[in-house]
Amino acid sequence: MNLAHCLEALLETDPEDIHVTSEWICGIHRAIAWELFPEWAGRFRTTDVQVGAHLPPCGHEVALHVRNFCLDLEERLRHVNGAETIAALLAWSDWRFQWIHPFKDFNGRAGRILLVALTYKLALPPIDPASGESGKEAYFAALRAADAGNQTPLAELWLNRLLS
Fold first, then answer.
1. CA dist 85 → 82, 98, 114, 123, 158 (Å)
2. CATH at residue 7
3. How far is Cα 102 from Cα 65, in angstroms, rounded to an integer?
């Protein structure tokens, strides 16, 4: 299943039935990566990696970080109540998922599906979670700022997406 088919299937699901769990995340990854990487699609990485200057959690810690991410996300979803808190939730989800970097590859694609699922679950109009070529550097700068503890640039980026 490619990315488009995965998104199609997601949008055929009742938003109330979308529960972001470790298993759900692995299922999304498996669906988009299986054809190219059947031996590890849908399985968390077990090796250490470096993404640019970022050192994600050690391979043996990935499952725990994803589980905690899912629990934290579930709690945060209970407290959204307007554009700014939604933007903060999407920014945090976007950053934290990429910070964990749970798979060997296809983390960006899996993260975008996660973000589409969240916007759908929150009954928002369709929002493209991908930064176009012109916004890519600002997006990466916002991710680096979030890595350093400042999620404001990424939240502002998401707020602009929500309001445009």
1. 6, 20, 17, 14, 10
2. 1.10.3290.10
3. 9
Give me 128's structure tokens.
Answer: 């493209």
Six-digit token string for 122: 């929150």
Q: How many domains does the structure of the chain reveal?
A: 1
Query: How many CA atoms does the CB half-sphere of 129 hold within 13 Å?
Result: 21
The model's pTM is 0.93
Per-residue pLDDT of the chain (164 residues; tens, 9 = 90+): 577 888 888 889 999 999 999 999 999 999 999 999 999 999 999 999 999 889 999 999 999 999 999 999 999 999 999 999 999 999 999 999 999 999 999 999 999 999 999 999 999 988 887 777 778 899 999 999 999 999 999 999 999 999 98
Q: Which domain holds residue 53?
A: 3-163
